[in-house]
């Protein structure tokens, strides 16, 4: 059979010719037409032969490898892998049993003998172990059709070396195979194979196909014979000949983020982190590869991945190996995903850990651009790269500034643009403007400092530029003990015509040389008080690669503070506090040492800045105060809640129920205009979803339209009145997965201070329901009748919720009805705090109800009661209550500026707290 079908040639040439003619006549290659023969002369349908063969990297590639394959025939049984050393006889083969699973496949583009698209395949997997390092093996894939043994052709693989000798692997990103773009993927593989035939494995930085359950795309990925995109010009066979290491991309996970019916069906990669698929580490020569999964970004998932990373990096550093992290989504790239909320999250959570651990390089995908840069903790470039010649560069690793590399696109599917401005960069996002953290960015125009020789890969220019071509890309990475070299190649390719339109060329060559100096920074203490004139003294030392001390007396030493506004480092290494922050904060400090030739970066030193409570959250107005709280607790969030800035905050009273469910901040807006501070925060925080509380009379339809036009997903929650809105919010919270507690807060809807004092309890899951002084609205009755609520806390005195209403409430619930009330809002807030028994307090001005809206979710996070205070004097009952809770572990905060809670109150509270600290 011909090479295009990947089958052993054992039958006569006349049979080959006949089959070729049949294919040409029909125009459709079906599995029924594809035949091969065993030595006996019996013909075996290709449907029974192994296809889509994938070799997967394990955690020990010196002694093991995983093999997956499929057959169209689903009746085969007893699958095996026969393995022997290539220079030995097949009779010495060791047999490994393989698992078989018949699965339904969707959107296949292969037809059966009846011309119908196939809907099932057999999926096989086996892991081969106890192999020898650096050894070439031969193998056959075997299965049984009844008593008949179906034997695939002889194939080969090679295990990883035990030595640290140099080797090359191929790095590609985002083939994202779909439709005719598979042809570019096949061609890219063939070109890489021809240029680097001795490469040891392929690393794919995620997004192997466009839709992981789409089997037709996997048929294109493997160039499976019979699929309608079958490429008889470029075989792409290398994908089945070399081991593949990969990370999971956002197109790989599928609906359950596990790669089922796609990535996990065609490859067996390990899950070395419990509950997170495709997370593993392996040594190959002089490098430790650590594969993370950026689709798992929940706090607990990131913590588990960071713990795994710490362990693997520590082991690798002890062994003197390069540390290479593989992941899909990229904290730093030259593309337009840089302002996405999930990317910002990775930049906040993972990037500082990479710097701290001194990870050498991070190989990424996602942004369909070729970019690289050595990035420091503050998101600025370590300016250490030297130009050797056109397209040729090198750098000595400065330490604590990982190389972030993105390998463009492995096919022709799409190529992204850079962001056009810097408006998306916030003060808490560690990223330099104008892509200044990079050395190379192929999305920039030709001639730009980051793309001096071009071409520009930005496909937005395709229609306007007749010379534009799409350029599938691969990177040949050569690893040795002392250096890692990245040679990036592009080929202009027309996938529809299956034709090269621009010969393969070297776009960029970059060599990262291992550092030979280690700079260490140490403090005389690890904290400093912002309320005193204390200092921290730094000491700096350096050692060469043999461990000998280096004299730094003639070196240029520059100290860097991540937040100069809070901590300043003098030229002699003395650290002082500059401006008192609103709350305790940790500021990272490091040193950069230049010896006249090279620059080296020290370890990152966290210095805690202590603030004697109370902390204050405030802004220039109520809108900015709410934004300040959001920045503190949700610097990154996909969701916000907008409540109207009305006199009594009617529709915002129950907002904290939604805030607790969504783990999202509450912001204030005017009826017809979103305040600038709110708009800016939403953009910087990466917001995607906006909940509007209240009807169009309090938050206009113009605002809703503006948000939709800005591509936010908008959900409006409201009822015919404030009571109905509160009930609707409780119902929506439950619909979104919020766990309603069996105790509800009941308030008079026209007594906003009482409702807002209950914010922490509401945010924790106690639904807030509204009544009138002498009656219970229908909407409130309905939710009491239909929900899990058994108990009620009435907030407010009998002047706002009458005894008659209290009696009626007792008839509506099966549990208890109690009251927390007083003669005024201060007394009521204290009574509620005493009942809730919270250990901390958030102080809100008596006339600062706007600040109390956000104080609810803040109180929930801080386990604090909301207490009201007069502007210039602490009420004696509030004073006594604070005395009852203040201890060395308690926290007291102020919500709002000095216009609602004066500095005199802040100072008075501080004097109460200081003796306990």
Automatic annotation (TrEMBL):
Give the signal peptide, or none: none
Q: Which UniProt keywords apply?
A: Signal
In what residue span(s) does the Calcineurin-like phosphoesterase domain sit? 171-369
Every copy of the Purple acid phosphatase N-terminal domain together lies at 50-159
Tell me where on the tree of life, at the top rank, the source sits: Bacteria
* Gene Ontology MF annotations: acid phosphatase activity; metal ion binding
State the Pfam families in the record: CW_binding_2, Metallophos, Pur_ac_phosph_N
What InterPro entries does the annotation carry? Bact_Sporulation_Assoc, Calcineurin-like_PHP, Cell_wall-bd_2, FN3_dom, Metallo-depent_PP-like, PAPs_N, Purple_acid_Pase-like_N
- The identity of this protein, by name, is Metallophosphoesterase
Species name for this entry? Answer: Mahella australiensis (strain DSM 15567 / CIP 107919 / 50-1 BON)
Q: What is the lineage of its organism?
A: Bacteria, Bacillati, Bacillota, Clostridia, Thermoanaerobacterales
């Amino acid at each position: 059979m011909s090479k295009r079908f990947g089958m052993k040639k054992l039958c006569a040439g006349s049979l080959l010719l006949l089959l070729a003619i049949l294919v040409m006549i029909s125009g459709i290659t079906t599995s029924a037409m594809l035949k091969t023969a065993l030595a006996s002369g019996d013909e075996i349908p290709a449907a029974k032969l192994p296809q889509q063969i994938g070799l997967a990297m394990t955690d020990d590639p010196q002694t093991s490898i995983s093999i997956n394959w499929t057959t169209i025939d689903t009746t085969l049984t007893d699958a095996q892998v026969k393995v022997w050393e290539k220079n030995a006889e097949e009779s010495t083969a060791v047999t490994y049993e393989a698992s078989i699973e018949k699965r339904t496949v969707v959107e296949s583009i292969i037809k059966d003998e009846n011309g119908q698209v196939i809907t099932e395949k057999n999926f096989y997997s086996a892991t081969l172990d106890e192999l020898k390092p650096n050894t070439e093996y031969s193998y056959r894939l075997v299965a049984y059709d009844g008593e008949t043994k179906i034997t695939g052709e002889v194939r080969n693989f090679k295990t990883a070396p035990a030595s640290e000798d140099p080797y090359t692997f191929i790095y590609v990103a985002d083939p994202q195979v779909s439709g005719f773009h598979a042809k570019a993927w096949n061609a890219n593989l063939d070109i890489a194979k021809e240029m680097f035939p001795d490469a040891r494995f392929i690393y794919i930085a995620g997004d192997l196909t466009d839709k992981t359950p789409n089997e037709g795309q996997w048929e294109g990925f493997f160039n499976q014979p019979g699929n309608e995109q079958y490429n008889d010009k470029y075989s792409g066979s290398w994908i089945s000949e070399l081991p593949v290491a990969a990370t999971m991309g956002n197109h790989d996970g599928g609906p359950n983020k596990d790669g089922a019916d796609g990535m996990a069906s065609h490859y067996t990669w390990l899950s070395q982190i419990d509950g997170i698929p495709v997370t593993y580490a392996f040594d190959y020569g002089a490098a430790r590869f650590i594969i993370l999964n950026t689709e798992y970004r929940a706090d607990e998932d990131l913590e588990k991945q960071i713990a795994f990373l710490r362990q693997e990096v520590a082991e690798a550093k002890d062994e003197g190996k390069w540390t290479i992290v593989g992941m899909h989504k990229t904290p730093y790239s030259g593309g337009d995903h840089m302002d996405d909320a999930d990317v910002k999250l990775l930049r906040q959570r993972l990037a500082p850990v990479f710097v701290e651990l001194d990870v050498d390089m991070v190989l990424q995908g996602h942004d369909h651009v070729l970019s690289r840069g050595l990035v420091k903790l503050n998101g600025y470039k370590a300016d250490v790269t030297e130009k050797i010649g056109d397209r040729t560069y090198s750098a000595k690793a400065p330490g604590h500034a990982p190389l972030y590399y993105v390998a463009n696109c492995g096919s022709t599917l799409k190529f992204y643009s850079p962001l056009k401005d810097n408006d998306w960069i916030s003060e808490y996002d560690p990223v330099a403007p104008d892509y200044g953290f990079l050395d190379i960015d192929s999305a920039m125009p030709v001639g730009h400092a980051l793309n001096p020789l071009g071409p520009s890969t930005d496909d937005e220019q395709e229609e306007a530029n007749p010379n534009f071509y799409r350029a599938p890309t691969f990177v040949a990475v050569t690893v040795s003990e002392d250096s890692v070299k990245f040679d990036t190649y592009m080929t202009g390719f027309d996938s529809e015509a299956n034709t090269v339109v621009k010969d393969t060329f070297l776009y960029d060559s970059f060599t990262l040389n291992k550092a030979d100096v280690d700079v260490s920074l140490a403090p005389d203490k690890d904290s400093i008080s912002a309320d005193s004139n204390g200092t921290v003294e730094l000491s700096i030392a350096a050692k060469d690669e043999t461990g000998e001390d280096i004299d730094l007396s003639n070196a240029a030493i520059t100290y860097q503070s991540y937040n100069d506004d809070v901590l300043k480092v003098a030229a002699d290494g003395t650290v002082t506090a500059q401006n008192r922050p609103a709350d305790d904060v940790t500021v990272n400090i490091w040193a950069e040492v230049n010896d006249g030739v090279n620059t080296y970066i020290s370890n990152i030193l966290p210095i805690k800045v202590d603030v004697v409570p109370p902390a204050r959250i405030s802004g220039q107005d109520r809108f900015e105060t709410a934004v300040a709280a959001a920045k503190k607790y949700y610097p990154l969030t996909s969701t916000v809640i907008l409540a109207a800035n009305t006199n009594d905050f009617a529709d915002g009273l129950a907002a904290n129920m939604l805030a607790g469910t969504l783990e999202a901040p509450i912001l204030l807006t005017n009826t017809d205009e979103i305040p600038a501070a709110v708009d800016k925060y939403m953009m910087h925080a990466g917001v995607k979803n906006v909940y509007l509380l209240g009807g169009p009379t309090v938050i206009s339809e113009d605002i809703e339209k503006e948000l939709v036009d800005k591509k936010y997903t908008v959900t409006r929650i409201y009822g015919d009145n404030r009571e109905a809105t509160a009930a609707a919010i409780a119902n929506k919270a439950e619909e979104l997965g919020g766990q309603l507690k069996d105790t509800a807060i009941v308030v008079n809807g026209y007594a906003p201070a009482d409702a807002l004092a209950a914010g922490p309890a509401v945010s924790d899951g106690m639904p807030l329901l509204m009544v009138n002084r002498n009656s219970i609205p229908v909407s409130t009755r309905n939710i009491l009748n239909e929900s899990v609520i058994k108990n009620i806390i009435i907030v407010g005195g009998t002047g706002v919720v009458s005894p008659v209403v209290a009696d009626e409430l007792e008839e509506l619930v099966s549990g208890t009805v109690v009251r927390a009330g007083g003669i005024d809002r201060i007394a009521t807030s204290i009574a509620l705090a005493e009942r809730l028994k919270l250990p901390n307090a958030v102080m809100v001005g008596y006339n600062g109800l706007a600040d109390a809206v956000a104080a609810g979710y803040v109180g929930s996070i801080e386990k604090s009661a909301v207490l009201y205070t007069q502007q210039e004097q602490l009420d004696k009952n509030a004073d006594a209550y604070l005395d009852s809770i203040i201890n060395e572990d308690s926290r007291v905060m102020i919500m709002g500026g000095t216009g609602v809670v004066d500095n005199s109150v802040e100072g008075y509270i501080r004097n109460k707290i200081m003796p306990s600290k």
